[in-house]
Amino acid sequence: MSADLTPLAPGDLLFETTVTVDRARLVRYAGASGDFNPIHWNERFARAVGLDGVIAHGMLTMGIAAGVLEEWVGDPGRIVSYATRFSRPVPVPDPGEAELTVTGTVGAVNEDGTVRVDLGVTCNGRGVLAKAQALIAVAHAPLLPVR
Amino acid sequence: MTETTPTPTSANDALVGSSYPPTERYLVSGVKIAEFAAATGAASPLHFDQEAARRAGYRDVVAPPTFAVVVAQRAEASYIDDPAAGIDFSRVVHAEESFRHHRPIVAGDVLSTTVHVESITHRGGISMVTTRSEVVDGEGRPVSTVLSTLAVRGEGA
Fold first, then answer.
1. Domain span including residue A111
2. Best of B29, B40, B92 to disrupt the A interface by mutation (most A CBs within 10 Å)?
3. CATH no. for residue A83?
4. Does residue B61 form part of some domain?
5. Which of A32, A68, A77 sits opposite B62 (nearest CB)?
6. Element holding B52 (H helix, E strand)
7. CB neighbours (10 Å) of residue A21?
8. Are strands B110-123 and B26-27 parallel, antiparallel or unpaired?
9. Are A57 and A41 contacting, i.e. CB atoms less than 8 angstroms apart?
10. What are the pLDDT tens digits along chain A (147 aa)?
């Protein structure tokens, strides 16, 4: 590890972006992941099990946050660990879409050349992931905060 | 919150510490990696372009960091669908997920996954069931460790 981590300090905001999710996206993720639980695509079924309607796969929300993180990291293979709790469901209306706000901040700069990025994902102003953290193995190029 | 006292779920504590036979081997295709990346909005060319992946030092296109869920959930199903597990899947929500990658997954990998029942805890009519899926390659070398926790609601919880 010869990375220059000096530009990064805990608390630095690395990225903030919004991503929209509609029902078609849920169907696409169901097919890609093999998770066909009907609460993610069938309104009638979702209501029958006590939900207010169709909700996004927690793993889709986690995956979307990873996609945003990757843009900052550059090489997805550098993400060595990634964990979260699912604190609230993401309702996906039809017609319409859910809007997710994804942020990443530096959680820790470690001596072993890894950086912990703390991810935040909110929907309608409320957190839907909790303790979402990824560990990045910084290879050669320095990674810079956006501001 | 209701006044009803929730009844415990039937999640079977006796299975903690046990594991299930490895899943059938799963050949990771570049097409599947691209499909998964597109579904999650991961735009890196390393997911889609073999040449770009090779220039970055990989044998082939690289999977997104949550791709291992594809094989982990197949392995978890052998436990969750086991009648002895006592889990009513219609009362399950996903509570936690964690990936530790021993190396990145790339197209051409042949993966095999073994699910272990890591822990089961009960509180207030909800059972938290944690599985650990160990993903290995064709030579048996570790690729990813995936922890998944499901919250199983009892009646009234």
1. 13-21+58-137
2. B40
3. 3.10.129.10
4. no
5. A77
6. helix B50-55
7. 21
8. antiparallel
9. no
10. 334 566 889 999 999 999 999 999 999 999 999 999 999 999 999 999 889 999 999 999 999 999 999 999 999 999 999 999 999 999 999 999 999 999 999 999 998 889 999 999 999 999 999 999 999 998 644 455 543
In a domain, B60, yes or no: no
Residues of A with Cβ-Cβ distance to B133 under 8 angstroms: none
Helix axes A58-73, B30-40, angle to 10 degrees: 100
Give the number of domains in chain B. 1
Q: Shortest Cα distance from B6 to chain A (angstroms)?
A: 16
| Predicted ipTM > 0.90 | yes
Number of domains in chain A: 1
What CATH number has the domain bearing residue B100? 3.10.129.10
A-chain CB neighbours of B63 within 8 Å are 76
Helix (H, G, I), strand (E, B) or coil at A123: strand
Residues of A in contact with B39 (CB under 8 A): 25, 28-29, 31-33, 60, 63
